[in-house]
Amino acid sequence: MKYGVNEQGYYGDFGGAYVPEMLYPNVEELRQQYLTILNDPDFKAEFNQLLKDYVGRPSPLYYAKRYSEKYGANIFLKREDLNHTGSHKINNAIGQILLAQRLGKKRIIAETGAGQHGVATATVCALKGIECVVYMGEVDMERQAPNVARMKMLGAKVVPAMSGSRTLKDATNEALRDWIANPVDTHYIIGSVVGPYPYPDMVARFQSIISFETKKQLFEHTGKELPEYVMACVGGGSNAMGMFYHFLDDESVRLIAVEAAGKGVNSGHSAATTFLGKEGVLHGSRTILMQTEDGQVVEPYSISAGLDYPGIGPQHAHLYKIKRAEYASVTDDEALQAGLLCCQLEGIIPAIESAHALAQLEKMKFKKDDNVVICLSGRGDKDLNTYIKYFNY
Amino acid sequence: MSYEPSNNMNRLNQLFATKGNNLLSIYYTAGYPELNSTLDIAEALEKAGVDFLEIGFPYSDPVADGPTIQNSSQQALDSGMTLKVLFEQLKDLRKRISIPILLMGYVNPIMQYGVERFCKQAAEVGVDGVIVPDLPIYEYETIYAKYFKGNNLSNIFLITPQTSPDRISKIDDLSNSFIYLLSSSSITGGSLNVSDSIEAYYTRVKAMNLKNPTIIGFGISDNATFTKACQYANGAIVGSKFVKLLEEDNYLEKIPAFVQSIRPIY
Ligand SMILES: Cc1ncc(COP(=O)(O)O)c(C=O)c1O
Fold first, then answer.
1. Fold observed for domain A20-50+89-203
2. CATH tag, A56-87+208-391
3. CB distance A354 to ligand 1 below 6 Å
4. A104: exposed, middle or buried (C-beta count within 10 Å: 0-12, 13-18, 19+)?
5. Interval B59-71 mean pLDDT
6. Residues A180, A22: contact at Cβ < 8 Å?
7. Fewest Cβ atoms closer than 10 Å to its Cβ: which of A40, A271, B159, B167?
8. E strand or H helix at B226, and its extent?
9. Per-residue pLDDT band at A79 (split at 50, 70, 90)
10. Nearest C-alpha to atom 15 of ligand 1 is from which residue?
């Protein structure tokens, strides 16, 4: 694959495994084993069976008629919101729990922002009867309270991350610290295409099911495998990478990634990483991150907990730098309005994360016959409080 | 007492050449508890008999550190500590302090400062070595090593109970002053727990007859843990326990008694 990872774990200038020696054996074990395990017929069979019977895949590719009329193109929604647990995060969680089992791990840790990855991880741990600890920023525990309750019902222990901005980046720090202290029996299920190599590649492979299905489904709808546009929101970038994966080598397909601008790119309250960031190291990989001149990580802001992250995965940094994908940004207000529009035009309440991708439709100039696929990465149940407050329902 | 590095022997190499055991090193965070306390603390520690120092430059997201050092780092950042400020403070380092000095911190601030500029300035002010926990061997060898070597700075690698013998040998080859032996796989600020398996690990490393001396760190907090560590290595490093002392009033005056409590001189 032209845009894939090389042997050293790099995508162009980005990637690698910048981890302290304490984490080296864990990461090295994964590096040595992940491809063998992922290619094992037994693994594949169990993965595919669970995706079908437990997650409910394939997720529909829905032709959104009223959106299409409004925006003057054929708009399709890839319905990851219909997955069990309500988002694309479950695809990766299923893959990693099966991997962890094959590595003989007895305990699972995870970080979560919106709580979707935490819920997905708690779910697969319940499924397999494995102990689960989820780190979540204290601020996020408040704004995504229903997901905290869900994780607890599923048997996970939820530990508040109290350092820094008390959001996703700090939850990730705490999970890494836990992994340092528990190097032998614990597997860390990272929730996005971030972290040291091989995580970005491994998570992208698990999420690539999104674009794999889309190609076939689009052919059934239109007689063509390739759309003109593929769009997705980017926190760390896993739903976007899953949505882009099988289109990367099809250079005619325009890949649009949408970041969270928060209160505006230049407001000082934003998470629009490619607009505000510089190259550096975050959470184990060389990537683009928001930072001060002195190399301190800047605390991001977005109303969407899942996009409130100061970096992006290294493969995104690469696709951005070489211009294979285009990176846009959408504010809190634009996203919430787009979320409401989706309810009213299509009868779907989207996650606020996904609503960022939908909001970008307003800014695009399509031709009449363009086929456009948007990853509807999750459902909005977890965000009802935020929607209710914003629109005064 | 004052010695200048010569023949590619920096102060660290000279220290290990002249004193082989019971070495005591102290870690603390630059700019904590006060922005300008960095050198005063160094001076007090040297006077109290400490053999070498690790001065941490703060980072916002120190994943290898526990709450004590996280907190000192955040406070130092809030007070305005940056690498630029630190090098400014260290201008007079060698007028006041003669023991070896290491800088310790995470890779991103070095990257933003520019590794070449960082190494050059570190050497200019009289720093002897650098510890960068999240700088991988591959990137060290391919990018960083030439700047470290060109400025006669030792790069200190860490090993843990999980590090394989092959990797320990490789680290021994790449090292040129000492190897930092972690007492367990943990973040800073834990307690030294000498279980059978840890004892086996120390013994295993000792039996490898490495060319570099070893210093044990993480969880060294009193005379008992220091003495234990010195049975297996050439010395030990105290970090979080000392940073906690800096939270107290009149911390400078308390330094001699603190050092005495770790390694009594009778
Ligand atoms: C529904 C949904 N979409 C998107 C994201 C952002 O993550 P990523 O960029 O990895 O897809 C999240 C994260 O929590 C999410 O819950």
1. Rossmann fold (3.40.50)
2. 3.40.50.1100
3. yes
4. exposed
5. 94
6. yes
7. A40
8. helix B223-232
9. very high
10. A306
